[in-house]
UniProtKB/TrEMBL annotation, chain A:
InterPro entries: DUF2063, DUF2063_N_sf. The keyword Protein biosynthesis does not apply. Residues 6-94 form the Putative DNA-binding domain. It holds the Pfam family DUF2063. Keywords: DNA-binding. One of its GO terms (molecular function) is DNA binding. The keyword Hydrolase does not apply. This is DNA-binding domain-containing protein.
TrEMBL record, chain B:
Belongs to the UPF0276 family. Pfam families: MbnB_TglH_ChrH (PF05114). This is UPF0276 protein ILP92_12655.
Length: 252, 284
């Protein structure tokens, strides 16, 4: 089968490069007809990235986005036929992409959009009701660890990523952006994936709970109001799906 | 005579998420829906919730677009396992894939690419189809491609290649009549001649999609865009084919610039009318 393999290697190389592979026949204009394949590959992958990173596209404009996508696709072609997982490397790529350096917030906005896709496709899990949560944590809350919903993602940034994301939704009013960083809670709610801003202590607490720390340690150094707000945010959005007695997996 | 699947000999459409409300628990008259397998390989969330709900309303065709059955290298075992998980979960009435390749080494090219037709590629494709049918525990349908090029290395006609695949593997065929029209126009061949030697007895489903057209100095270039209504000559070929085979499960395929659901349902009704016409002609 070497002939077939070599032919596909040449065909694949021409798709992402230039020229026409050897051994193909067309009724004239062979380059134009081969270009149908090259264009489909380029357009379909650019489309996939546009759908995954619509705010990045809006921020940089369609022409610049298509050019960036072209460079990204050549550097990082998909490795899987599951296009929903294509673009994991896009945020880091933007980080190192000199023409985008002036827009320093772009990589974090891309991370936020990537996390929204992960949340959308994450596994399903049944939420604990507030009553079940109260029961499970009534005895010794300090030693109980929470299992948070697989759709939950957290993103902290030196840039106001939540405000940037919201200002670039279809129909959003242009609003002045706050100075400084923002932290985001990203999760699935019915068919949608909302992005909520979190204050720094809440961001830290949810991060500690997500990392499996027992409630006692995760919620330490916070006042009762703050703890109540954090837990009620998680419960309201169905993001606590289980509890387990804390076990120190680092010992013995 | 046709290849048996669990799909009814009626019309279906490709399911798009925006159409969920219009399809779920509504009398659309559709006989089945078709999904692209690769869009349902996440762990959970709305895609699976919607598909599970629609599964109760419609027969289901799972149509893969990424297995690279025509690839020179081995099939992606991980991807085949994903397909098996999906089929186990939804128990589709049909599984189909393409006579094409889309992966080379470890890169996925996201297009259905053409292959030369000779004894060596025939053996490779048949081995891959055996592997798929064993892994999924069911026969599959293989779709004829739309192509813009052919190969100096080809020694077999596409129709002979497909007929030999069905004979060796026992798989059925998915006859895409738009693909026949697109390929034949691009290669200056007669679609009726192609269909007259197509192994119609092995067809388990028909696809009807739209194409784009460009006039080049060397002749027309048709592009299988799935972004337009089914063209009139394709409807005519469809009616002629159904008159020969009898009613077959028929899918309206519209994947890009997808219109509102009523536009798709109108296309489906046009196919229904052709199926009904053949039913009446055969009954009288």
């Amino acid at each position: 089968m070497p002939a077939h393999r070599e032919l596909q290697a040449a065909f694949g190389a021409a798709l992402t490069g230039t020229g026409v592979p050897p051994g193909v026949i067309a009724t004239g204009d062979v380059a134009r007809r081969f270009a149908v394949y090259r264009n489909t590959v380029q357009h379909s992958l650019t489309d996939a990235l546009s759908q995954r990173f619509p705010v990045i596209r809006r921020l940089v404009g369609a022409r610049f986005f298509d050019a960036v996508a072209g460079v990204f696709i050549r550097a990082h072609p998909p490795r899987s036929p599951v296009i929903a997982v294509y673009g994991a490397a896009f945020a880091d790529f933007l980080d190192g992409f000199p023409p985008a350096r002036r827009l320093a917030y772009l990589p974090d906005v891309a991370r936020l959009e990537w996390a929204r896709g992960l949340a959308f496709h994450a596994a399903d899990a049944a939420a604990l009701t507030p009553a079940a949560f109260a029961d499970a944590t009534a005895h010794d809350p300090d030693r109980v660890a929470l299992t948070l919903h697989p759709c939950l993602h957290l993103l902290g940034s030196d840039y106001p990523v939540v405000s940037i994301w919201r200002a670039n939704q279809p129909g959003a009013d242009p609003a002045p952006l706050p100075a400084g960083g923002e932290a985001a809670l990203i999760f699935r709610d019915a068919g949608d994936v909302p992005v909520l801003p979190l204050d720094p202590p809440t961001f830290r607490m949810i991060g500690a709970l997500a990392a499996g720390k027992p409630m006692g340690a995760a919620l330490a150094h916070a006042d009762q109001d703050q703890i109540a707000r954090t837990l009620s945010t998680l419960l309201r959005h169905g993001l606590i799906v289980g509890t387990a007695p804390f076990q120190n997996t680092r010992f013995p | 005579m046709s290849f048996p699947t669990g799909l009814p000999p009626a019309t279906g459409i490709g399911f798009k998420r925006a159409h969920f409300d219009g399809l779920h628990a509504t009398r659309t008259g559709l006989g089945f829906i078709e999904i692209h397998a690769e869009n349902y390989m996440g762990a959970g969330g709305p895609p699976h919730a919607q598909l599970a709900a629609l599964r109760a309303d419609y027969a289901l065709s799972v149509h893969g677009v990424g297995l690279s059955i025509g690839g020179a290298g081995p099939l992606d075992a991980t991807h085949l396992a994903r397909l098996r998980t999906l089929c186990d979960r939804y128990q589709p009435d049909s599984f189909s894939e393409h006579l094409a390749w889309s992966s080379h080494d470890d890169a996925f090219l996201n297009d259905l690419l053409p292959l030369p037709y000779d004894d060596a590629t025939l053996a490779t494709v048949c081995a891959h189809i055996d592997q798929v049918q064993t892994a999924l525990g069911r026969p599959m349908l293989l779709e004829n491609p739309s192509t813009y090029l052919t190969f100096e290395a080809s020694t077999l006609a596409e129709t002979d290649f497909l007929a030999e695949i069905t004979r060796r593997t026992g798989c059925g065929l998915l006859l895409d009549i738009n693909n026949v029209f697109v390929s034949c126009t691009n290669h200056v061949a007669d679609p009726r001649a192609y269909l007259s030697v197509f192994p119609l007895h092995a067809v388990g489903e028909i696809h009807l999609g739209g194409h784009d057209a460009e006039d080049l100095p060397s002749g027309p270039l048709l592009i299988d865009s799935h972004a337009a209504p089914v063209a009139d000559p394709v409807w005519t070929l469809y009616a002629e084919t159904i008159a020969a085979t009898g009613p077959l499960p028929t899918l309206i395929e519209w994947d890009n610039d997808v219109p509102d659901l009523p536009v798709l349902l109108a296309e489906a009704r046009r196919a229904d009318a052709i199926l009904d016409g053949v039913r009446h002609a055969r009954a009288s």
